[in-house]
Amino acid sequence: MVQRVCLAMLLLLCMNTGTLLAQDSTVTAPVVKKIKPVKNTFGSAWLMDNQTVMVPIKGTLEFDIQHRFGTVNNAQKDLFGIFAPSNIRLGISYAPMSKLYVGIGLTKERMQIDLNAKYALLRQTPGKMPISVTLFANVVMDPRNKSNFRNDVDRFSYFSQLIIARKITEKISVQVAPDFSWFNNVEAYVDSKGVIRKKMNNGHFAISMMGRYKFTQKSAFIIGYDQPLTQHPTNNPHPNICFGFETTTSSHAFQVFAGNYAGIVPQSNNVYNQNDYTKSQYVIGFNITRLWNF
User: How far is residue 259's CA from residue 111's CA, in Å, rounded to a whole number?
Assistant: First the structure.
């Protein structure tokens, strides 16, 4: 009898141990949520006259229409620049791989053709990276008649920019971007002693500061300032103050604004801008972008 009771207790103990082992084997480690980079720091690859830190996802195709009217200071004579000579750029860009954007554009002013590229070096990530950093660069060719140039190399100019941005809140984003422009050919003159002197330096440093405040889910106020840093022998460029309104969807962005830059190619704006905000020499402009994903 005692042997039967002991055997029954042994069997019960083995059953409980098996149950405990089975329960232990089902315990899993806690799921760690992957922290992703911040999205939509800005609503478009453009913010008025400057590139933003944004690089669309792989497979994105973008078409740009950028338009600048004449200066508004002639008032009703040309309806605040709307019927004055204008400038326009048509561009197309594509993201062949993650973090890289390449494009081409044609601008009415001097029929400039630009090839450009943008690469995301860093992306703002909560708890890991406080800012986003993107490098933008282009090369521009002036295809006008040969009589305008001594050599074909004089047709080319270059621009590079390091864009540093932060999405502070869901409504506020800011960026700062130092940049460098280079023209192979600059205008010169002969002084009173018969010496040929350059009117402008070939190289030019500048810095831009931009901001966006979203007042609804799709609409925002935008503001910017471009400050030239290099001093030239003559014809120093004027700063650019710009401000406007932006509305976006998942595939469109529309910006209308006022600013001092009449050009669209960045090195032309930075080096040759002669519109003075103290004299109300503003132009009205707009940007339209359309995105497709493949």
Answer: 22
Domain that holds residue 108: 46-293
Give Cα 99 distance to the centre of its chain.
13
**What residue type is assigned to position 54 of the chain?**
M
CATH number of the domain that residue 225 is part of:
2.40.160.40
The answer to whether 106 touches 65, Cβ cutoff 8 Å, is no
Give residue 99's region: left, alpha or beta (phi > 0; psi -120 to 50).
left
Report yes or no on 7 lying in a domain: no
Tell whether 70 is covered by a domain: yes
Do 44 and 255 form a contact (C-beta atoms < 8 A)? yes
**Structural domain contains residue 27:** no
Rounded-to-integer distance, Cα 249 and Cα 256, Å: 15
- Kindly state whether residue 9 falls inside one of the protein's structural domains: no
Secondary element (H or E) of residue 272: helix 266-272
In contact, 248 and 43? CB cutoff 8 Å: yes
Q: Residue 274 CB: number of other CB atoms within 10 A?
A: 11
Per-residue pLDDT of the chain (294 residues; tens, 9 = 90+): 444 544 444 444 444 444 444 444 455 666 667 788 888 899 999 999 999 999 999 999 999 999 999 888 877 777 877 888 889 999 999 999 999 999 999 999 989 999 999 999 999 999 899 999 999 999 999 888 777 777 888 899 999 999 999 999 999 999 999 999 999 988 877 777 777 778 888 999 999 999 999 999 999 999 999 999 999 988 899 999 999 999 998 889 999 999 999 999 999 999 999 999 999 899 999 999 999 987
Query: How many structural domains are present in the chain?
Result: 1
Contact 95, 56 (CB under 8 A): yes
Going from the C-alpha of 33 to that of each of 30, 36, 41, 121, the distances in angstroms are: 9, 9, 22, 24
| 153 Rama sector, left if φ>0, alpha if ψ -120 to 50, beta otherwise | alpha
